Write the structure tokens for this entry.
Amino acid sequence: MLEQNITDPVSPHEHPRRVLAISRRVWEAGVVLLFGAVFAASVISFARNSSATFDEVAHLPAGYTYLRWHDYRMNPEHPPLVKKLAALPLLWRQGWPASVDLSKDAATSQPMTDSDEVLRWSWTMELAIADYQWTFGHIFLYGIRPEALQRLQEKDPGINSPLTVPPTASLSRQDFYNNADELLFWSRMPILLLGWRWRC
């Protein structure tokens, strides 16, 4: 039996198989990238057009407090990693409530007259009652500026705190400390990267 010379060129039958294998890999990679792009587009569309989900009101502000003040009192029942990842883009914003001094003793009597007081009060109360994380989160996302609250109080004297503003009140984007839609959008982007990586 003659041994095949190792320097012989590739058999004509092997070449189409290699081409087929390469084209199949390219096709599979294209399908994976297509599904990844559809996933990313769906998530970005949701992130851009959806209001806060129930848990985001507690989880996002909690993650921000972990990173900003290194305090883990908010939402301790869930692991902190994903909350911190979601809050990471918020650290580049030098806005409210970064300027609020949470170490200051908070008044414990209602009504709270402005968003800063409610934020400090709910921060303090969270140590005793875990449900105050929702109050803190609501004010974190939708805190109203004092001048806007004063304008609303002139129209309706029954409004005595940022927590008693009726949903029918006429407010503009400038009446709030933060742009909640922007905060939510950027906090969802690290989660998109986690999800896209998992799918690929």
